[in-house]
Specification:
It contains three helices and eleven strands, in the order ααββββββαβββββ. It is of the alpha+beta class. The strands form two sheets. Strands 1, 2, 3, 4, 5 and 6 form a six-stranded antiparallel beta sheet that branches. A hairpin with a 2-residue loop joins β7 and β8.
């Protein structure tokens, strides 16, 4: 009888230990997740990724793609209108452009994107006032813009849009994890909130882009008008 009593108590103790070790987490219906940080605050506070993982071809350019393969960006340089982009043909290295000043820039392309608002159209496209399209964002140390003159799709649209080929140099870019930062020559880019923010934190200039919306941050003392939260998409 004594042995049976000890066995019963032992079983009860074991059950108590199992019950104590196993906890059930229930979702708090009243919990509201914090709102994403404003773009420049995200760029200031987000942790830095190791730039070695994003150095395109071992050069000075840092390039990445987002986890959903919707946005590709480069922290690179410009000579006039010529950008040093490792995944696109360009004339950045042409000898004729060596006389132009080299400026650090951040450049992003999107596979799906909103149309630019009229106030953000910055080029008359060789006097035609036609062909200024969205899908590209750009920031240098002093200015940010959205859109460009072109006759076709962005490289990202060709690779990862609805009819994209899912191949090429863009498909080989390293993914920048959500919430991480990259920095080059005073400019930063961070993947977060379903898109990418890039900017010059010290000057208060930058942009945020996603498939659904974009925002331009012109900096203190400049026109602070921003695109609406939801801008219409291109066809």
């Amino acid at each position: 009888m004594e042995a049976m009593r000890r066995t019963v108590w032992g079983m009860l103790a074991a059950l108590l230990l199992v019950a104590t070790a196993c906890s059930v987490t229930t979702k708090d219906p009243s919990y509201v997740p914090p709102a994403p940080l404003p773009p420049l605050e995200q760029l200031e506070k987000a942790p830095m990724a190791d730039p070695k993982d994003f150095s395109a071809g071992g050069g000075d350019v840092l390039s990445f793609i987002t986890q959903d393969h919707g946005i590709a960006c480069s922290l690179t340089s410009a000579r006039g209108e010529h950008l040093n982009l490792p995944y696109e043909q360009n004339r950045y290295s042409d000898a004729a452009n060596n006389k132009l000043p080299t400026v650090p820039v951040a450049h992003c392309e999107l596979a799906s994107y909103p149309a630019p608002q009229p106030a953000d159209v910055k080029d008359d496209c060789a006097g035609t006032n036609l062909g200024y399209l969205g899908g590209v964002a750009f920031v240098d140390p002093d200015n940010a813009r959205y859109g460009e003159c072109r006759s076709g799709v962005t490289s990202m649209e060709a690779a990862f849009g609805p009819r994209g080929n899912k191949s090429g140099l863009l498909a080989e870019l390293h993914v920048l994890a959500d919430g991480q930062n990259l920095e080059r020559n005073g400019l930063r880019c961070s993947a977060y909130n379903g898109g990418v923010a890039c900017g010059n934190v010290s000057a208060g200039v930058g942009f945020f882009v996603s498939a659904e919306r974009y925002e331009l941050i012109p900096g203190p003392g400049k026109d602070s008008a921003k695109a609406p939260t939801e801008a219409p998409k291109t066809p």
